[in-house]
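#struct-queue
[09:14] JT: dropping the first one here, sequence first, then the structure tokens:
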Amino acid sequence: MLIHPLVPYRQNGLALLIFLFMTMAAMLALIVGAHAPPRLDDDATNQALADAQEALLAWSMARPDTQRAPPGLMPYTDRANDGDYDGQSDCVVTDLDNNLLRIGMLPWRGEPESAGNSNCEGRTDNTARTDDVGTPPFDASGSRLWLAVSRNVIDNRVFADYADIVAGHRFLTPAALRSTAADPHWLRVCGADGQILADRAALVIIAPGAPLGEQRRGGAAPAARQFLDAITLPAPCGPVVDHAGATNTYVLAPRSAGFNDRIRYLSRDAYLDRLVLRTMQSLRAIVAAHAAAHGGALPDPADPADAMLRCDPAWPAAVFGMLPAGNGEGCAGLLQAGPSPWPAWDDPADPQGWFRAMRYRRIDAGQAELSIEGCASLFTLQLRDGSLRLGRDKVC
């Protein structure tokens, strides 16, 4: 009977111990948290990187077909070459192989209209290059995002006809972008173990994070080294990769005491696939208009051996021919007299261009298939309910 009065006291003692333990744990957490290194919100930073990549792609693909400048070309970066990071591209006239001239803050305000920057298209032919890429892009630390661009896809208009866009190629076609001549000019991405994650990246977007160590970001135009970090790696990517140096290599690695750059990269193939889809949308509109003007039927293919690429109604349905440029016997080609409906950024007569890279097979009046040299996709064109539908079997 004497044991019952002691039970409440045991429970009160246990509650007191639990309370004391929780209080000490909370105090310890506050002490550790006060001295722990600041952590970025990875989700917010990763979302900012993804949003910036999509904005760049959408901006680069938005050029109208009436312009000589082809879609897909990326902007020059904001290198503070004009005295500050103003959000506009600082364009380069020469030495595009110099990686230091192709890395800078992401130019969210597009390209300027300046007669002194002959490579900036904001002033040329209403190319919409002065349009904003998007709102100012920041990572979770409040730092503006940075951008590195491959020589193969940067906006090179030293020559008015865009000669030598891709290592001697006039057009941004799949064959040009996948050529051996283009290979040395892509960016490389490595992991923390020094292994290569991607050796053909079209662009890399970098979130610099909060300043580390001796980094100081005051003033109008701090150097790239005040934002971007270097890291020591094993071979083959090591021994040192410096994001602020004259490198074409960038590192996807966990944060450490001396490295907190976060990156997102776009591979050549992902870039190319987006570019092909953009081009195919232009083709779809042209073929749809042609069908509407010619009895609701898709055009007949052309014989590849015909230098004029005239449509040929006798071309066998089971065989791929070419897109028809000119009129044939009893049929109409895509390119009629007068203003050409074909995009001004391509040349149907140039063997390096998009038009001549396409192979076309008409199955019947309402169905056709199309392929592009250097692209693994097989596209389908199908007239249904008065509209032309575009499909494909797989990515490029």
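[09:21] JT: and here's the second one, same format:
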Amino acid sequence: MAHIQLFRAYFEPKGTKNESIKHIDEVLQDLTDEINRHIENREVINVDLNTSHLGNGHTEYIVSVLTKD
């Protein structure tokens, strides 16, 4: 049986360019860590990444992970 899990992350620009870079690194690392915990000991069938640019530099990341249970 297959199982699909959705993961979401949201990036909001910070004050300076360096603060924004640090923030996006943290957002994407947290997302990666969460996905890795989910797929541990599972067979991954497919991974899909969608980004939505919401304006003013705001971005939403949605990752769907299809695994075999």
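[09:30] RK: nice, looked through the second one.
[09:31] RK: The mean pLDDT is 94.
[09:31] JT: good to know. The longest strand covers residues 43-55.
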